[in-house]
Design brief:
Residues 140-261 form the VOC domain. This is VOC family protein. It holds the Pfam family Glyoxalase_6. This protein is of the alpha+beta class and 264 residues long. It folds into two domains: 12-126, Roll (2,3-Dihydroxybiphenyl 1,2-Dioxygenase, domain 1); 140-168 and 181-260, 2,3-Dihydroxybiphenyl 1,2-Dioxygenase, domain 1 (Roll). The chain is 17% helix and 40% strand. It has helices at 23-34, 83-92, 151-162, 219-228; strands at 13-20, 37-40, 48-53, 56-63, 74-79, 96-103, 108-114, 120-126, 141-148, 182-187, 190-197, 209-216, 232-240, 243-249, 255-260. It has an eight-stranded mixed beta sheet, with helices on one face. A seven-stranded mixed beta sheet has the order 10-11-9-12-15-14-13, covered by helices on one side.
Length: 264
């Protein structure tokens, strides 16, 4: 899992956000599931709030314009010291920049991009507002994983853009023992995220995508609660590389993983 000390290192997942059709209903869902409270956030892209747990910002929720009837999904943001420079690197390495770079009030500078397989991700240049420090506490994001058709090829893109380490057993270009097609990416010797090959198992209606893992005390209880709140269980609880976890979705279909908190 990602450690707090690496939060500002370029390439480290530093924030996660979700754009939905009904912001009020989504706030109710995640308040009931993760005990989140909400405070106003940057409004450049429309109505937006920061989810807060125990006084610490943990995620962002925004509302899509009524005319944009798009599927919704959680988006991972990767840290950068210079969003404009990162945007140029993304383009040079075969990705695309869809939004920005642009300023987000006092919070910093951001952009939204897609890698060569089409997986959408954000880039965050932190300013006054401190980006998320992943503590591993229940109700907070603790891991981010990209599912792609070819983990080896797309890993090279992220390695070139963000400088993930290609050395030895901590390689972004070689599969982990016992986990064919799964590659953990490292910065400063620490694991920060992973890329997993889905190959033919990747649904046609859902291409390459980043997945946010939220810590919970009890995975089975969280899965039960998701169902009660109008969400859906996509994959039931099981032991995985990231721990005991389950894949679920909220009322609008945004998928996320709940994983047992360390020490729980």
């Amino acid at each position: 899992m990602t450690e707090a000390a690496t939060r500002r290192t370029p390439g480290t997942p530093c924030w996660t956000s979700l754009m939905v059709h009904s912001l009020a209903a989504t706030q109710d869902f995640y308040h009931a599931l993760f005990d989140w409270e909400f405070t106003p956030g940057p409004q450049q892209l429309g109505a937006y709030v920061r989810a807060v747990r125990d006084g610490v910002p943990v995620a962002g929720l925004g509302e899509l314009p009524p005319e944009r009837q798009l599927p919704v999904s959680w988006m991972t943001y990767l840290a950068s010291h210079d969003a404009d420079e990162t945007a140029e690197m993304i383009r040079a390495c075969g990705g695309t920049v869809a939004v920005g770079p642009l300023d987000a009030d006092e919070a910093g500078r951001m952009l939204i991009a897609a890698d060569p397989e089409g997986a959408v991700f954000g880039v965050w240049q932190e300013e006054e507002h401190a980006a998320l420090r992943e503590s591993g506490a229940p109700g907070t994001p603790v891991w981010h994983e990209l599912t792609a058709r070819d983990s080896g090829a797309v890993a090279k893109f992220y390695q070139m853009v963000f400088g993930y380490e290609p050395d030895g057993t901590r390689s972004a270009s070689s599969s982990e023992p016992g986990e064919p097609g799964r590659r953990t990416l490292h910065l400063a010797g620490r694991p920060v995220c992973a890329i997993r090959s889905a190959d033919r198992s990747l649904p046609r209606d859902r291409g390459a995508h980043w997945m946010t893992h939220f810590a919970v005390r009890d995975v089975d209880e969280a899965v039960r609660r998701v169902g009660e709140l109008g969400g859906r269980v996509v994959e039931p609880p099981s032991d995985r590389a990231t721990g005991h976890a389950a894949l679920v979705s909220d009322r609008e279909g945004a998928a996320f993983t709940v994983v047992r908190a360390e020490g729980a």
